[in-house]
Design brief:
With 409 residues, this protein is of the alpha/beta class. Helices cover 46% and strands 12% of the residues. It has helices spanning 3-9, 19-27, 46-60, 91-105, 122-125, 130-136, 143-147, 150-153, 162-165, 167-182, 194-208, 225-230, 246-254, 261-268, 273-279, 286-303, 305-320, 346-352, 359-367, 387-392, and strands at 32-37, 64-69, 117-120, 186-190, 219-223, 231-232, 235-236, 331-333, 371-373, 376-377, 395-399, 403-408. Catalyzes the attachment of tyrosine to tRNA(Tyr) in a two-step reaction: tyrosine is first activated by ATP to form Tyr-AMP and then transferred to the acceptor end of tRNA(Tyr).
Length: 409
């Protein structure tokens, strides 16, 4: 099985152009491709992790990845998949985020001469003369076609600024520049990027001539699962251990839904497909062991083997002891000043610990008997936590059978 066929078997390909050329180039290890990462935060998250795994798979097969940091596009913000405008970041924040991304990427991708590249689109976007850009690039785009793009349609009700409207042109120009500078033939990205990616392909063909044989090999692949994995009801799952601890990262994957465990294993791990097919035969309680494998493998990839072992042992002790052994849990720090009358009420602590998304949900969970404080069921929605315990050892909250959190002052 070639690497292209493996990508198909793992469910990593959604939409693509020039399928035969893609297959031949990837399987021969002759593709130079890029994936863009806009620095909207100071850490990559799980959605980015899928892209990094894809880059690693292709690099292992001899292909050359380009990780494109959006130091320039980050100045505008991608409207794709959003119902409102992104907050505008300062150049200093954008650069800091780019530096954080680069450090994290280096743990997964091998960069260096003849290997992968890290490139920042600020190198060509920030020095552009806008009038020259309109003359040289703007003439290649039809406003009618741009307005039909799904990423813009989603914003009609709340409004789309002209500022954001330029994002498609900027991303297209990235592809053109990477093709010219590094011979990049492919762009990978999520399904929400499809219109932007097609725009880049078309720009190259228009600028270089429709009959240019090399330009005609430009190919695109997309996948829609990354952003779905990137967020949970609690918010983003980060790769930075200071934002999502190794234990919480492990628990996220340990608690993935039964219907998703095999899909996640195919998309994100390097476990052979034959072995995954065997795991797929498991049902009921046997799936818990498969989830442990998934959680361990991904935690090891992101945080190292020692942290993965520690997280796995801690999780097993927690469940085996019915939640009594909680030494490994990192405490969520509570600020009394943020609570009413400086009294830390149980509902507020549940929200702070992200065991519920809001106070209404917390109230319902308590009323339904689904909340325990240090393994004692609490049904009083007005309950407050013991200050002395919070100061000394912390208090363990549990919602249902699987969701635990320690809180402390």
């Amino acid at each position: 099985m070639g690497v292209y066929e493996e990508l198909q078997a793992r469910g990593l390909l959604a939409q693509l152009t020039d399928a035969d050329r893609i297959r031949d180039m990837i399987n021969a290890g002759k593709a130079t491709f890029y994936i863009g990462f806009d620095p909207t935060a100071d850490s990559l998250h799980v959605g980015h992790f899928m892209a990094l795994c894809l880059m690693k798979r292709l690099q292992m097969a001899g292909n050359k990845p380009i990780a494109l940091l959006g130091g320039g596009t980050g100045m505008v913000g991608d409207p794709s998949g959003r119902t409102d405008s992104r907050p505008m970041m300062t150049p200093e924040v954008i650069q800091h985020n780019c530096d954080c991304f680069q450090k994290q990427m280096s743990r997964f991708i091998e960069f260096g001469e003849g290997k992968a590249r890290i490139v920042n689109n600020a190198d060509w976007l920030l020095d552009l003369n806008y009038v020259n850009l309109l003359r040289e690039v703007g003439t290649c785009f039809s406003v009618n076609e741009m307005l039909r793009a799904e990423c813009y349609k989603q914003r009609w009700e709340k409004g789309l600024t002209f500022f954001e409207f330029n994002y498609m042109i900027m991303q297209a120009y990235d592809f053109y520049q990477l093709y010219q500078r590094f011979g990049c033939q492919m762009e990978f990205g999520g399904d929400d990027q499809w219109s932007n990616m097609l725009a880049g392909r078309e720009l190259i063909r228009r600028k270089l001539g429709r009959d240019d044989s090399e330009a005609m090999t430009i190919t695109l692949l997309t996948n829609s699962e990354g952003k779905k994995m990137g967020k949970t009801a609690k918010g983003a799952v980060w790769l930075d251990p200071d934002k999502t601890s190794p234990y919480d990262f492990y628990q996220y994957w340990r608690n993935v839904g039964d219907a998703d465990v095999i899909k996640c294993m195919k998309l994100l791990t390097f476990i052979p497909l034959e072995q995954i097919d065997e795991y797929a035969k498991k049902e009921g309680q046997e799936l818990n062991a498969v989830k442990e494998v998934l959680a361990y493998e991904l935690t090891k990839m992101v945080h190292g083997e020692e942290e993965a072992k520690h997280a796995q042992e801690g999780a097993r002790k927690l469940f085996a002891a019915g939640g009594a052994d909680t030494e490994h849990l990192e405490a969520v720090k509570l600020d009394p000043a943020s609570f009413r009358d400086s009294k830390i009420d149980l509902i507020g602590a549940l929200v702070a610990a992200k065991l519920v998304t809001n106070r209404s949900e917390g109230r319902r969970a308590i009323e339904q008997g689904g909340v325990m404080v240090d393994e004692e069921k609490v049904t009083d929605v007005h309950a407050v936590l013991d200050d002395e315990k919070l100061k000394k050892d912390g208090i363990v909250l549990r919602r249902g059978k699987k969701k635990f959190a320690k809180v402390a002052l």
